[in-house]
Amino acid sequence: MNPAMIPEGAHPLASTIARFVWLLPLLPLLGFLINGTLAMLGVAKVGPADPSAGHGHAEEHGHGAAHGHDDHGHATRHKFAPIVSLVGPGVLVATFLLASGIFFAMRGVEMEHPYIQTLFAWMPVGDLQLNATLLLDPLSMVMIMVITGVGMLIHVFSVGYMQDDPGYPRYFAYLNLFVFFMLMLVLGGSYPLLFVGWEGVGLCSYLLIGFWFSDKANADAGKKAFIVNRIGDFGFLVAMFLMFANLGTLDVQGVAAKAAELPMGGVIATAIALFLFLGCTGKSAQIPLYVWLPDAMAGPTPVSALIHAATMVTAGVYLVARASGIFSMAPVAQLTVATVGALTAFFAATIGLKQWDIKKVLAYSTVSQLGYMFVGVGVGAYTAGIFHLVTHAFFKALLFLGSGSVIFAMHAAYHATHNHDDAQDMRNMGGLKKHMPVTFYLMWIATLAIAGIPLFSGFFSKDEILSSVFARAHHSTLAESSLLGIPGGTLLLVIYGLGLATALMTAIYMTRMMLYTFHGPNRTGAAEEPHLKEAPWVMTGPLVVLGALAAFGGWLNVPALLGAIGPVGGLEHWLEPVVGEATLRTTLGEPAHLSHSVELMLVSTAIIIAVVGIAFAVWRLKPAALVPKKDAPEATGFDRVLENKYYVDEGYDAAIVQPTVNVSRAVLWKGFDAGIIDGLFVNGSALLARAFGWMGSQLQTGQLGTYAWVLLIGVITLLGAFTFR
Amino acid sequence: MLVEALALSAVLFSIGVVGVLTRRNAIILFMCVELMLNAVNLSFVALSTLYGAAGQVFVVFTMTVAAAEAAVGLAIIIAIFRHVKTVNLQNINLLKG
Amino acid sequence: MNAFLSSINYNAWIVPVLLLLPAIGAVGLWAHALLTAKDPAEKRWREVRVLAFSFFVVEAILSLGLWWSLDPAAAGWQAMVDLPWIPQWGVRFAVGLDGIAMVLVLLTTLMMPLAVLGSWTSIRTKPHAYYANLLILTVGMLGVFCALDLVLFYVMWEIMLVPMYLIIGVWGGERRLYAAIKFFIYTMIGSLLMLVAILYLGAEASRVGGAPNFSYDFILNNVHLDPTTTLWLFGAFALAFAVKVPMFPFHTWLPDAHVEAPTAGSVILAAIMLKMGTFGFIRFALPLFPGAAMNPSVRTLIVALAVIGIVYGALVAMVQPDFKKLVAYSSVSHLGFVMLGVFALTTESMQGALIVNVSHGVSTGALFLLIGMIYERRHTRMIEDYGGIAKVVPIFATLLTIVSLSSIGLPGTNGFIGEFLVLVGSYKTQPVAAVISATVVIIAAVYLLWAVQRIIYQKLAKPENESMQDLNWREIGLLVPLVAAIFWIGIYPKPLLEKTEPAARRLVTYVESAAGKAPVTASNQAR
What is the pLDDT of residue A6? Predict the structure, then answer.
């Protein structure tokens, strides 16, 4: 198909440990099967042979309550907990070790072409000869390392966080399954296979958000996530139709090769790219489909860390990078991606300023940072986008896990005193610094990283995105095209401005979160305060590792300006074989270049903004003035609008959800189906037949005499007709 | 001879028809039907001189059927009489649709 | 396997035996009813269900050989048997299979034992008549898939109507008579028009061939009609099949029939009987009248109805309070995909349509079985009467989730493969229809997940549900094959695709070339 493809066996990786790449997804799948079986064994009680013989008996009563989720009850561990604790994180450790092996093998060879492993023929139909193929290249390798590495840490953390949950095996089964699908997503060698992972992670997200399903809000949140994601998936599907109809293949490599032959900025490339991006807005929570992500915080906190911060939600960014061959042919689509990303980043950051739930702050922060990544991949700075994806995975996972250990402590404290207050509301926290010092210091590291303080990881990646935008505003295919009449160059400068504003707000809301949570006096309650304590080592251990990564992750891709501190552009060289061509296409064939002084100016602007943001927050916000949630007054004015997230959910509900349901019920079902088709046509024709029957029946008088007369007349008529015809 | 027999048959048949059409008593009606049957029998017999014995065979058939019919018919009339205490057909319209 | 099958000359006898065995079974049940008339009802019931079940199992085992014995690539009919039946009218007992029919035959023979197991304990009244009806129904359904003589096809088509009418009307729910009569009359109207068309074709055949003849092959190859007649005959066939599919707007019998039918009836209706409509289009309406089927306005009409059915069925399913009705409307939506795939007429979409046919049978069949199981326990189908039962019946909840996800079309399950192929294939010829239909991935998630949530998740609010008992081994056992099929088709559909690919490809090229040969002028006349 594609000349760039070389036979599987001839690839330099074929003789290394990389030939076991199929084991990567298989190991978590195995974990899922084992944990899933244990989960079923733990709860299942096979019913009697004859279910209609009668209903349950009194002794069955309460059987259900014994194994549902109960946030506050049961300090007893699940009977399979030891095996699950071994299998669940165990398969992830094994996967991570294998991934590391493959990583080092890949470092040792020249990765000019991706290593493609064909597993079996999947959908061989007509022109669509689709195989199940795994595609291993530097880009998927980066993702694999993030998924397995961060995934492993979060699995370990979960052992502590979920220890007393009655659904312990089920939790790990879902988590393992998620890793399986996520690996399928990044390893998928064709878009449909990628889509398998894409929808699969959505499924796991659905299951895990609704993990504590007894609560309607949680079940709703899970469903909402799935359905909103499906809107995006519709876009992905249509993109695949377009690819197949116009490019004749759905293979990742094949599509990239064919896309290069399309006309630059043509309708087909633009349409494919835009529909793919619709998929990304769903999965990666961008405007207009971001609404599910904040609700997704209903799931257990490690899930939020793994799925809704570090890995799954970044799949859209990965997809844009993966399809860079198409996107780089469609500057209009690229501008759309960058614009949507910038708007999302800005918009979500404003909401993040006023949230009280610690996880909601982080959720909106995630939406905002994802917007940043899309700005990066949107302007064709794929390395910058992926770089921010990686560093974000480190510091956001750390923030979520840190918030998890805070919530864990709060929960334990409230549980000890049988208080039912909100364990996630920052107004109920405060002064946790002295109770949870490890968490406190680590979360500050992450906060500095996300705020963009120099030498912490986030600084490097954010700066790279911003400077890429700035550079492309002057010299790129984007600058030459336009979106909705706005010239690309201007638009990019606006995006750059939005990026700076977002960075400022990021620094503010993150500092706000830290101040309210850890600083000032404690507001948990006098009785509860003595019960607040640091989480066990199994939880803080992963935090420490993530803290190191969040602090030093920037060394992956040091900018030339800071060449003194480490190797310059490590990630950029690593990803060059995958996205290099597309990047150059956007930058008109020469590497994006900014003069030293301009770059210095950009960097200092970013640093100043971060510092100002933090300083402003420290100056303006007084944690001592805060009152616990139950005593807090209602917010007013614009604060209230922000606290209610601009009423977007309500708007969607009123504009889309309710009308659809009501029209379906009143017009389509009751009106058309039951009314017109059934009422008018079906029962109507029956009624018509009955009416004719009634008319006929009126001829039957019941008088024998009448019948005899009619008979006689009939006979005479017939006789006459035959005689005189 | 044939003409007279057929004429008699026609007269008898007409009497039967008129009786069926005008009378209201079920028994009389019944007798009129018998009269019509026998009128037809008469023409069968008469015509058998021209067309062979088949006509006479048919007469036997007709009489058999008439006998059966009489039995069933009278039984129905009695059943109806038990039900509505009359055999006047004007008062009976069980066949009304 | 192949050597063994040919050593027993399997292909020569298998189809008549498959048709005969259930008939013998029905007689056997009748004999049992007579012989055991004096036994206690409980004992008779226990015996007769085992007896009937064993007939279905033998039937299923016998039919399995078809998977190996048929060569899907071979051009002609296979396992063909052609015997004189009514010589005066030229009607023959001609049966045979191709890849498409074989898959449906296997679906039938394999679903039937599961359907019987599904109503293992719930049907206690008049068990002999019930199981005899199921057996006769099997004869009719298999006959439809095998028949190669139009009169034989018509007879089989009508044969299956009666037992289904009785199953709904006698063993159904509260409004069973309304549903049964609606089902019967709806289907009858369509099929009578089809009979007229068949007789017309027979008359034409006898004019061309000099002797009365209803042979499918003969008519296919020798009867050439003028465009207007083609259009009329196609319409008659299409109406019969459209009612059966059911296509919008002929679908309203389906929700009623499904809701009122006993579990086995719903399963068979969904899994097999609806497939006869689509099979009819594939086997008869398209190849016999390619001119009409490819007529742009006819094609646009059918594709439009299919798309309306897809979206409309999904939207109406969303607001149903009755779970069985919800699934019934979702069937309208799924079968719309099949019709879209068939009339988009590309190899991919045709193959996708065939996969949706099978996977809808598996998934929706399983859904109806699951509904039957909780209905047996709680005697309600209303979604609002449940809630939170995942806690008391975790096995049920797990299976319901898996089956629902496959019905939604989650990748990795059968639903995805079919829908994806249909849409990807249809986009080539019917892009607008494909894109509109693709929106159903969203609505499908809405209606099923919403229902699933209200049934198994949320708070366990109703005290009646607290003592619900989980599935027993019989119920688990009968769902396991279906779940296995869900994943098999979802992950490795190649074996299945291989069986139908040559036939699908042949059909597409035949219809295209046949329609091309006689350029249709009828479209102008039709206006």
Answer: 60
Give φ, ψ of A589 to 5 degrees.
85, -10
Best interface-test mutation with B: which of A704, A710, A715 has the largest number of B CBs within 10 A?
A704
ipTM of the complex: 0.91
* B94 within domain boundaries: no
Beta partners for residue A357, in sequence order: A425
Quick one: average pLDDT of C2-12?
84
DSSP A587-611: TTTS-----HHHHHHHHHHHHHHHH
Inter-chain CB proximity C411 and A223 less than 8 Å: no
Burial of B75 (0-12, 13-18, 19+ CB in 10 A): exposed
The tokens for A204 are 């796991």
Q: Cα-Cα-Cα-Cα dihedral of C143, C147, C151, C156, to 10°? A: 10
Closest CA relative to residue C255, chosen from C354, C175, C189, C353: C175
User: What is the C-alpha separation between C10 and C278, in angstroms, rounded?
Assistant: 28
Residues C513, C516, C518, C524, Cα dihedral to 10°: 140
Distance of alpha carbon C77 from alpha carbon B75, whole angstroms? 64
Q: Are A20 and A94 in contact (CB under 8 A)?
A: no
pLDDT score recorded for residue A66: 38
What does the pLDDT average to over C211-234? 88
Q: Is A379 helix (H, G, I), strand (E, B) or coil?
A: coil
| For residues A696-700, average pLDDT | 83
- Residue A187 CA to residue A189 CA, distance in Å, equals 6
- Chain C interface disruption, residue of A45, A59, A71, A123, most C CBs within 10 A: A123
Q: 3-class DSSP state for residue A404?
A: helix
Query: Which of chain B's residues have a Cβ under 8 Å away from the Cβ of A704?
Result: 29, 89, 92, 95
In this structure, the number of other CB atoms found within 10 A of the CB of residue B35 comes to 18
**Residues of chain A with C-beta less than 8 angstroms from the C-beta of C433:** none
Reported as half-sphere exposure (CB side, CA atoms, 13 A), residue C466 has a value of 16
Question: What string of DSSP letters covers C140-167?
Answer: HHHHHHHB-BHHHHHHHHHHTHHHHHHH
Say how far apart CA A343 and CA C102 lie, in whole Å: 56
A85 token code pair: 């604790």
Return d(Cα C63, Cα C18) in angstroms, integer.
7
C-alpha–C-alpha distance, residues C252 and A677, integer Å: 7
What is this structure's pTM? 0.88
**pLDDT per residue as tens digits for the range A60-109:** 333 333 333 444 444 567 888 888 889 999 999 999 999 999 999 988 88
The phi, psi pair for A190, rounded to 5°, reads: -140, 160
How far apart are the CA of A705 and the nearest CA of chain B, in angstroms? 6
Residue B11 within any structural domain of the chain: yes
Q: Determine, yes or no, domain membership for B76.
A: yes
Q: What are phi and psi of A128, to 5 degrees?
A: -100, 80
Average pLDDT, chain A: 87
C56: nearest Cα among C32, C36, C28: C28
Cβ–Cβ < 8 Å for C108, C272: yes
Residues 6+ away with beta carbon under 8 Å from A146: A310, A311, A389, A390, A393
Could you tell me the CA-to-CA distances from A352 to A358, A447, A507 in Å, in that order? 10, 14, 11
Query: What's the domain range around B18?
Result: 2-87
**DSSP 8-state class, residue A678:** I
SS3 state of residue A117: strand
Provide the token pair at C368. Answer: 């109806």
Is residue B30 included in any domain, yes or no? yes
Q: What total of structural domains would you count in chain B?
A: 1
Query: What angle separates helix A315-322 from helix A191-209, to the nearest 10 degrees?
Result: 170
CATH code of B69's domain? 1.10.287.3510
Structure token digits, residue C500: 């139908």
Whole-number Å distance between alpha carbons of A137 and A135? 6
Which residue in this structure is represented by tokens 């100043």? A608
Cα A49-A52-A53 angle, rounded to 5 deg: 75
